[in-house]
């Protein structure tokens, strides 16, 4: 069983999958991986064999093997000759007693390569990281926001104290102090932020600004001389600004703290890979009247021009161009 699990894990690692899913389906188990936000089947097996795979993983993660219905969480560190991967497990049983399992793979930050269409876009972010203030990322799940934030912060970690607060931790980075939200224990983003400020970090990575309290603490940290890298759920760069205003942040506070708003997508390339394209507004260009005038727009003119450049230079195909033209 150990060998079968290792084969599955090596397959997922080679694909840089974020998750492995073990789903019961009639009399069989279907095993899928999530790669760049898309699920793909990598194996189907008998119900008995699938159950054995799940039991092995649960045992390695100090979960109760005999418990099939109640939700359980576990953690296992998988090591091979090249990698040490943190595996976070979550299991639950359906009303028929069939158990499903999700394994989240938490890779070291050095595992991910920086891969961007336009180097000047990442340089804009690197330049902003030299200053204090707020850098906000947006984009759908699987677009590489966390990877981008970690790559930027890792370059600062030799000289600055970096702390991350996430729900959950997605990338393991030993050079950061990484804190994880635990709502069941009443350890929220805002509570961890307040505690973390007492440790006097230079740089904060905040997994997501979800509520008014977290937004206020993040803005106050930026105003008091910290660099904040964070994400906000929004459809585009204009919506990020509006979303923060809806969370109680004023135009004046945003104009004082905002370094860059950066929306990103991970776009498939013709050679079978994928690269990140950003849509960005720098703080010096923030104007509430311009934001209000474009709030119904999807993307900036620069996004469309850069995407067209990618297509005309045969970096992406027509399908990708048409898919991502509106973000």
UniProtKB/TrEMBL annotation:
Listed GO CC annotations: plasma membrane
PANTHER family tied to this protein: COMG OPERON PROTEIN 1, TYPE II SECRETION SYSTEM PROTEIN GSPE-RELATED
Organism placement in taxonomy: Bacteria, Bacillati, Bacillota, Bacilli, Lactobacillales
Molecular function terms, GO-annotated: ATP binding; ATP hydrolysis activity
Family: Belongs to the GSP E family.
Source organism (scientific name): Ligilactobacillus salivarius
UniProt cross-references to InterPro entries, sorted A to Z: ATPase_ComGA (IPR047667), P-loop_NTPase (IPR027417), T2SS/T4SS_dom (IPR001482)
Name assigned to this protein: ComG operon protein 1
Domain Bacterial type II secretion system protein E as annotated: residue spans: 4-276
Keywords carried by this UniProt record: ATP-binding, Nucleotide-binding
CDD domains named among the record's database cross-references: PulE-GspE-like
């Amino acid at each position: 069983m150990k060998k079968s699990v290792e084969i599955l894990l090596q397959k997922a690692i080679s694909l840089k999958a974020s998750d492995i899913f073990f789903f019961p389906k009639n009399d069989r188990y279907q095993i899928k991986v999530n790669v760049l936000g898309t699920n793909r089947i990598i194996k189907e097996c008998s119900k008995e064999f699938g159950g054995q795979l799940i039991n092995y993983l649960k045992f390695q993660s100090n979960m109760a093997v005999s418990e099939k219905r109640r939700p359980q969480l576990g953690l296992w560190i998988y090591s091979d000759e090249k990698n040490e991967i943190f595996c976070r497990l979550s299991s639950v049983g359906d009303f028929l007693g069939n158990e499903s399992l999700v394994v989240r793979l938490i890779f070291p930050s050095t595992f991910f390569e920086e891969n961007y269409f336009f180097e000047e876009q990442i340089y804009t972010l690197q330049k902003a990281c030299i200053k204090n203030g707020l850098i906000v990322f947006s984009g759908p799940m699987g677009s590489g926001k966390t990877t981008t934030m970690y790559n930027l912060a890792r370059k600062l970690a030799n000289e600055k104290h970096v702390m991350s607060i996430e729900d959950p931790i997605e990338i393991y980075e030993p050079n950061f102090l990484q804190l994880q939200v635990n709502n069941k224990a009443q350890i929220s983003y805002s509570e961890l932020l307040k505690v973390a400020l007492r440790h006097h970090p230079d740089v904060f990575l905040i997994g997501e600004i979800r509520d008014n309290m977290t937004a206020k603490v993040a803005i106050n940290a930026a105003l008091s001389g910290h660099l904040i890298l964070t994400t906000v759920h929004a459809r585009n760069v204009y919506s990020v600004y509006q979303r923060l205003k809806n969370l109680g942040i004023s135009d004046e506070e945003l104009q004082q703290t905002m370094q860059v708003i950066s929306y990103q997508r991970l776009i498939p390339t013709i050679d079978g890979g994928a690269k990140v394209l950003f849509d960005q507004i720098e703080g010096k260009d923030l104007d509430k009247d311009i934001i209000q005038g474009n709030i119904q727009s999807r993307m900036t003119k620069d996004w469309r021009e850069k995407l067209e450049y990618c297509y005309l230079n045969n970096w992406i195909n027509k399908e990708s161009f048409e898919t991502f033209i509106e973000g």
